[in-house]
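ok here's L-iditol 2-dehydrogenase:
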Amino acid sequence: MRVLNLYGVNDLRYDEIGMPERKNTEVLLQVKAVGICGSDIPRVFDKGTYHFPTVIGHEFAGTVVEADNTDLIGRNVAVFPLIPCGECSACQCGRYAQCKQYNYYGSRCNGGMSEYIAVKKENLVFIPEGVSCKEAAMCEPVAVALHAFRKACVGIGNTIVIFGIGPIGLILAQWAKIAGLKNIVLVARNRDKVEFAQRLGFLQTINSSEISVRDYVLSLTNGVGADACIEGTGQSATLEECLLAVRNFGKVVTMGNPVEAITLSQNAYWNILRKEICLVGTWNSSFTEMENDWKDALAAMQCKQLDVLPLITHEFTLEQYKEAFSIMREKKELYCKIMFVIEE
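and the structure:
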């Protein structure tokens, strides 16, 4: 079968390997669509995976073609990519994102940029009627966005500011719209991204290189500030802007993966103290019976509350991987989500 196999840092190949051997705890999935995550860029070009070669890709969906339970054959599914150990204290209470000995499709074991993959039955999320595999391949960023939004603890009439408007930021804005927030402010430093978000209907999108975020938010809130800010870039300057824009007793949710050391000025630190800001982290998503961001994500897609298709700006075959990755790495044109569509 054909795959995208990472043999080393900056050595990604369109490769042919044998079919995966399915265990009785797994099903064989024919992959229909798989997205390129922003984390795949440093994974391929800078940091590598945990061993080589590794088939990359953790945002994928497809059709079950082989299983011990024949009722599963033909079902379309998305896949929760984190494989918990099931034994540590975090796993015992369903906090799989904090598992100490987890495995992970696409970085610690072979992932979804392949024609077929064997995946654990426990990691399947069944796609409801009316949702395509292409949409379901967006389930991972949709679930991550929902998990972060829930940390913000905001609702009807509130104001949220989202810094960083890639796929997750734009999906998070959709969750805020569903929840009935009054003001949904999106912030970027790129004019093309601002215009893209505005075309999607988020008219309170601003360019922070041209407009003071703090002043803009204060003008919307009668000088009070935002109820919550989402830091989605992993940069010190953006975290400081969050601390300036949020109201007294507000929340700042740190979501962006840091690209370097995060530092704060004395003034920004004073804001945490004097405004008694609640600073909270978010990581991955919930996947339990009590709280399942993945099932909630697919349900929102099914009832058309949430629309991810406009975010998929580019589609490629696996064989076209060089062009797909170069768009993201070189940022030579506007993109949001780039997806490999293996079979319609």
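+1. The CA atoms of residues 63 and 76 lie 4 Å apart.
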